[in-house]
Amino acid sequence: MASFYDVVHRRRDVRGEFTGGVVPTDVLCRILTAAHSAPSVGLSQPWDFILVRDMDTRTTFRDHVQAQREIFANQLDEAQAKTFARIKVEGVLESSLGIVVTYDPQRGGPAVLGRHAIDDVGLYSVCLAIGHLWLAATAEGLGVGWVSFYQEQFLRELLAIPTQIRPVAWLCLGPVDKLQATPDLERHGWRQRTPLAQVMHDEQFGRPARH
User: Fold this and answer.
1) Domain count, the chain
2) Helix, strand or coil for residue 100?
């Protein structure tokens, strides 16, 4: 098994490298078990995982994503638009399945221990579960791509998600032919990774950290 740090640094947001191969049931179970073991505020475990394999559903979602991509592209200046045109933003049809992760703010309520002062910690808990899922998939040799070009209400209606539950992420999952050495947005020149030293502060925000 690859070391933890190796998995962390190999993890990528996958778009174009999916093979469409089958994800074995036992592997999928291990990945979801890892996600379900994530820490959560007040042990509320406010997440659900919707497995989406149906190709008609995925095609409908892909079409919606493409429409949202066009809306975003139309807001860019010429140089940004040229760079963005090279970037693939989803692998909805190429991946083996989609996993939609949701957030139920009522889970564990009405009094969720630890959430009284910062309501968003419930949503943070769901993001921790997504992080666990992503690292577990990477350790299994699979790829994950987080699709964010969608309207929440569209996805809620598409998958019959109750009104009080929020869809947080559509994750594309599946075998890949490779994981890129450099993240796509860096490879295509959209942004470069910020050095750690620029985001470290000592005691107070804005005070450079000592090494």
Assistant:
1) 1
2) strand
DSSP state letters, 8-21:
HHH--B-SS-B---
Decide if 147 contacts 89 (C-beta within 8 A): yes
The boundaries of the domain holding residue 64 are 18-181
Taking the C-alpha atoms of residue 72 and residue 80, their distance in angstroms, rounded to an integer, is 11
Q: What is the pLDDT of residues 90-120, one digit of tens each?
A: 899 999 999 999 999 999 888 888 788 888 9
pLDDT tens, position by position, 39-74: 998 888 999 999 999 999 999 999 999 999 999 999
Q: Is residue 207 in a domain?
A: no
- Written as six digits, the tokens of 31 are 């990945």
* CATH number of domain containing 155: 3.40.109.10
**From the CA atom positions of the chain, what is the Rg in Å?**
19
Gap between the Cα atoms of 87 and 129, Å rounded: 27
